[in-house]
């Protein structure tokens, strides 16, 4: 797994498979552009809602509009990147029912790679761009230092990895009940919705839950406090603001373990 | 060590909390390189479950399993380059894409050298008469065409073993014939080992020297096709077309069981030679045509199932 040559080969296979789908989609170029631009505009409405909110209030949970943009964008970019690259895994129940998973299992590419690359939809990049735009705007209000810039990069990478783990981990439920895609959505997309706001709008018990049990506060909240130069409203120590990569690695490892267990207990379909 | 080594292989499925379905019940067999083995049994007997274990899709509940020296479920991805799998009811091809795209993607993910890929593709397209269909989306292919596409897809990387699960299901007679011919040629040219499940005994008779019969998860027969035919024990039938209508033929060693105009049916023991009977008939009667029917293995197999 950790062998870099093998990883490069898997990445190559991912690119080969997804390139096929991109090429197929581009056969209908006009409709691809319409869907992509449409996706960009529709997801844009999301942040417009927050922006309108600020016409009536000066701060949300003690955070300015620009700071909220940084939080929203940070979570949004991470979510959208994870969704772009591994989001297809939420369809695994359908792949099981159609026997597609059996077909993938007899090919010399790791199953996870094939599942994530299957019917790869480049138009989901619209979401990445929209969130990146909001993040970029939020960034213009940050008092930059080299370490804050570095931390922002780490935050995006760790956040993406955390959503990546959530997508995979919760999709695995479908190995046991193939029609549980909504459960997974509640955690992935639901998690993204929660981290789109400053967590200071929630009661401290909720934040505790999002730190220790379902640790999506590490997607953007803790590192953002450091980048934005804010004190933690709930009094958590400063070092939690550097913990995101650790949490990400732990969650990815856990998700891969669940995945492996799911694959070994896979029952295929009768006849 | 055999190419495929199966010992006391078992797989159960838990259904509704309590009940366990034993889909494959302590099955043992070996398959040597280059063999063509037919795997038959009624619906739900455990054929597909066996193949899914051999390919590493399903983890066995218990037993010992080695394919090309490795445990399939533990080394599934590595084993994949050495095997080809065709599931008759399902396609491995990408539904919305032209055949050509599917094949090219397979070339990449199996890392087939370009020269070898072109050589194999040309050969299979020719043998399977698929050349004109390369640019047709898979969903527009007929069942027979799609099956030929699937077989090509399973063979582009030169697998040592080809598993076919009900490859002829739903095919018309012409497609079936062409497929059988192709598989025979493949085995002769490349010594590809073949394990084939089917409902259609003609597939077996056309292709396989060896037959394994499974019923309710247990192997009830494993041996040569001829042995299976003989085990039906009973008899072979000589069909005689006389020049004109005659009373029932009387020759030593055979019994006339039916007369219909100039055609008569004579049965004789399956292990007896047909030659003396044929010459006796030819000597005593004006014969227009003769043929010998082997025992119907469908009957034999039905007896096997009933005998459990
Ligand atoms: N995924 C599964 N879940 C539950 N039962 C299964 C599953 N797969 C197969 N079975 C059961 O196992 C038995 C053998 O099935 P199968 O191997 O598909 O038979 P065949 O291919 O010979 O028709 C059947 O009783 C079938 O219902
Ligand atoms: Mg079957």
TrEMBL record, chain A:
Pfam families: ABC2_membrane_6. Keywords: Membrane, Transmembrane, Transmembrane helix. The chain crosses the membrane at residues 32-54, 69-87, 128-144, 150-176, 197-222, 242-259. InterPro entries: ABC-2_transporter-like (IPR010390). This is Unannotated protein. It comes from freshwater metagenome. The lineage of its organism: unclassified sequences, metagenomes, ecological metagenomes.
From TrEMBL, chain B:
Residues 4-241 form the ABC transporter domain. PANTHER family: ABC TRANSPORTER ATP-BINDING PROTEIN, ABC-TRANSPORT PROTEIN, ATP-BINDING COMPONENT. It holds the Pfam family ABC_tran. InterPro entries: AAA+_ATPase, ABC_transporter-like_ATP-bd, ABC_transporter_ATP-binding, P-loop_NTPase. This is Unannotated protein. Keywords: ATP-binding, Nucleotide-binding, Transport. The lineage of its organism: unclassified sequences, metagenomes, ecological metagenomes. The keyword Manganese does not apply. Transmembrane segments: none annotated. One of its GO terms (molecular function) is ATP binding.
């Amino acid at each position: 797994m950790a062998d870099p040559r093998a990883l490069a080969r898997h990445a190559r296979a991912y690119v080969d498979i997804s390139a096929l789908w991109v090429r197929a989609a581009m056969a209908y170029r006009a409709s691809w552009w319409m869907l992509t631009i449409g996706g960009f505009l529709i997801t844009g409405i999301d942040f417009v809602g927050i922006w309108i909110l600020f016409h009536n209030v000066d701060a949300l949970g003690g955070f300015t509009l620009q700071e909220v943009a940084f939080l929203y964008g940070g979570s949004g970019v991470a979510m959208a990147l994870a969704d772009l690259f591994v989001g297809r895994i939420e369809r695994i129940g359908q792949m099981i029912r159609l026997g597609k998973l059996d077909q993938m299992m007899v090919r010399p590419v790791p199953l996870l790679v094939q599942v994530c690359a299957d019917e790869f939809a480049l138009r989901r990049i619209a979401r990445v761009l929209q969130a990146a735009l909001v993040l970029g705007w939020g960034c213009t209000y940050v008092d930059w230092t080299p370490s804050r810039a570095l931390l922002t990069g780490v935050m995006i990478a760790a956040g993406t990895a955390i959503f990546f783990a959530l997508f995979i981990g919760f999709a695995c439920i479908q190995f046991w009940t193939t029609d549980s895609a909504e459960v997974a959505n509640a955690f992935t997309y639901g998690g993204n919705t929660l981290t789109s706001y400053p967590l200071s709008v929630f009661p401290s018990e909720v934040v505790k839950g999002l730190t220790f049990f379902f640790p999506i506060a590490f997607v953007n909240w803790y590192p953002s406090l450091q980048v934005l130069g804010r004190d933690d409203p709930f009094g958590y120590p400063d070092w939690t603001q550097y913990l995101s990569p650790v949490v990400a690695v732990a969650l990815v490892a856990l998700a891969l373990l669940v995945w492996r267990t799911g694959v070994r207990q896979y029952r295929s379909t009768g006849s | 060590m055999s190419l495929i080594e199966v010992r006391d292989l078992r797989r159960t499925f838990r259904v509704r909390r309590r009940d366990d379905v034993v889909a494959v019940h302590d099955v043992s067999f070996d398959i040597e390189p280059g063999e063509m083995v037919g795997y038959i049994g009624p619906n739900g007997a455990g054929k597909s479950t066996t193949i899914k274990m051999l390919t590493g899709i399903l983890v066995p509940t218990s037993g010992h399993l080695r394919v090309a020296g490795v445990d399939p479920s533990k080394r599934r991805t590595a084993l994949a380059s050495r095997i080809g799998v065709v599931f008759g009811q399902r396609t491995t091809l990408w539904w919305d894409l032209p055949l050509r795209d599917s094949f090219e993607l397979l070339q990449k993910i199996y890392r087939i050298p370009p020269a070898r890929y072109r050589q194999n593709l040309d050969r299979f397209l020719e043998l399977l008469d698929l050349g004109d269909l390369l640019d047709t989306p898979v969903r527009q292919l007929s069942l027979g065409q799609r099956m030929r596409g699937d077989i090509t897809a399973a063979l582009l990387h030169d697998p040592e073993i080809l598993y076919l699960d009900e490859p002829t299901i739903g095919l018309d007679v012409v497609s079936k014939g062409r497929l059988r011919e192709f598989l025979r040629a493949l085995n002769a040219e490349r010594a590809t080992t073949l394990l084939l499940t089917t409902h259609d005994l003609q597939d077996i008779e056309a292709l396989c020297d060896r037959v394994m019969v499974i019923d309710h998860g247990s192997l009830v027969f494993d041996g040569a096709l001829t042995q299976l035919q003989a085990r039906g024990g009973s008899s072979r039938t000589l069909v005689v077309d006389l020049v004109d209508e005659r009373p029932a033929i009387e020759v030593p060693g055979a019994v006339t069981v039916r007369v219909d105009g100039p055609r008569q049916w004579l049965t004789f023991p399956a292990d007896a030679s047909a030659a003396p009977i044929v010459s006796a008939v030819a000597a005593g009667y004006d014969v227009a045509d003769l043929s010998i029917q082997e025992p119907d293995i469908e009957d034999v197999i039905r007896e096997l199932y009933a005998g459990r």
